[in-house]
Amino acid sequence: MSDPLIRRLGELPAAEPDRTRSEHIRTRCHARLARHRHRRLFSGTPPSGEGMAPVWQSLIAVLAFVYLTQAIRFALALYGLT
After folding, report:
1. Is residue 3 part of a domain?
2. Cα four-point dihedral sign 17, 21, 25, 31
3. What is the pLDDT of residues 19-76, one digit of tens each?
4. How crowded is residue 40: how many other Cβ atoms within 10 Å of its Cβ?
5. Looking at the structure, do residues 59 and 40 belong to the same domain, yes or no?
6. 37 & 56 share domain
7. What b/e string do you get for 10-30 counting C-beta neighbours within 10 Å, with b at 16 or more?
């Protein structure tokens, strides 16, 4: 870098976070988390995504089993063992 650029960068004030903005964002996040927690406690449904996990895992397991079975049948047919 050139010397004048380094000098100008050295004259810049140090960056500091805006405390009021940080506090405002923190307050909004806490309020949203509290609403979400409250809604989850009083509804009988699991949070989004948790109820579907066993269904997807089961579907993937079934598809893997079918694929493996067909691969074994193909290999046996290829070698004439069926």
Report:
1. no
2. positive
3. 999 999 999 999 999 988 877 777 766 556 566 678 889 999 999 999 999 999 999 9
4. 13
5. no
6. no
7. eeeeeeeeeeeeeeeeeeeee
Q: What is the pLDDT of residue 46?
A: 58
Would you say 51 and 45 are in contact if contact means Cβ atoms under 8 Å apart?
Answer: yes
Residue 69 lies in a domain: yes
Report the distance separating Cα 71 and Cα 77, nearest Å.
10
DSSP-assigned states of every residue in 11-74 = TSPPP---HHHHHHHHHHHHHHHHHHHHHHHHSSSPPTTTTTHHHHHHHHHHHHHHHHHHHHHH
In a domain, 35, yes or no: yes
Question: Based on the structure, what is the number of domains in the chain?
Answer: 2
Q: Tell me which residue range forms the domain holding 66.
A: 50-82
Can you tell me the distance from the alpha carbon of 38 to that of 47, in angstroms, rounded to the nearest whole number? 12
